[in-house]
Amino acid sequence: MELSKVTLEIFSKLEQQWLSQRDGNKKTRVLSIDGGGTNGIPSGPALIHLEHQIQLKTGNSNSRIVDFFDIIAGTGIGAILAAMINADDGTGRPLFSTKQAVKFVTDRWTEMYKVKNVGLVHRRRAFSGESMEKVLKQALTRDIDGKVLTLTDTCKPLIVPCYDLKSSAPFVFSRADATESNSYNFDLWKVCRATSSDPAMFKPFHFTSVDGKTSCSAIDGGLVMNNPSAAAVTHVLHNKRDFPSVTGVENLLVLSLGNGPVNISPERKISRSGYCRNQYVVGVARDGVSETVDQMLANAFCWNHTDYIRIQVNGCLTGGVGPATEEVLVERGVESLPFGGKRLLTETNGQRIDNFVQRLVASGTSNLPPSPCKSGAVSQLVNGR
Description:
two-stranded antiparallel ribbon; PNPLA_dom; Cytosolic phospholipase A2 catalytic domain; eight-stranded mixed beta sheet
């Protein structure tokens, strides 16, 4: 007997409800990497350990971080690492392993942050934007076909913040926006350059989207979102196209990697005139943003603190640009308390990552498609904005 249209609709709704409940047990996994000034990248060893543990627990040396996370966010140096381990090599696989990405950044550090002196009378230390741009462009251009990669050329969704001087507001780059309109698609190297433009050390970075309709005058994303975890979580909660089964934070599993607090000697904090130095103020802003976001997310996940893990370096590392892995991983972890303050944990950072990886591997690889092919779903932007 032929089923009526009403009966088919009832069965269809029941099926959708069943699928929603079944998928509800699968967490959407978020990786966030802080910005971190120019003194070092403590998140590098944490990322290497994360990928190594994934490989050990899967028994597959070709496993990569992007296989087990559904979205990656980064600010400043964190964005550079996030873009490199997420960039599509043309086959749906990441262009860099984590070891390769961290080694590239470490080896080319002095080129990325090439010191130059500016000013004729009152000379001050700054960095060469052109030198950083050259390194970033080299890293995020595919060798096999010479393609300059854009936000749409990533294995998984990517979130990167900066601050736009033209609109006097934060500007968040995302793959979701880029796939809907070329007016929001930007070269990856430009995205990384924009979020790394420390105003105390770099000039603002002026650039446009791939179609030339959207322009931005960017300074450091760390001023407003040095810890991009909240931006990533908000994006997932509101992006129903890529994450239709997410209804709240109970559907999320978040790993947030810090890059340590600002490390400036006491005598450099105050200038001869008695005012705080610009570089120190920028550092305070970064640390304040990161700590505030950590507190907010700790409160949001207080019902199950194991769904939100923050790995932060709390001591003063001696390793410089490439701190020894042991220094980062053997530090005892610190956890934000729901109503303020922190507590020292018995587990080390390395142990906390190991436990997190067990949950990642148990939940299986991500089911998101590597490269989205979405039809345009938005009307033409007005004035390219």
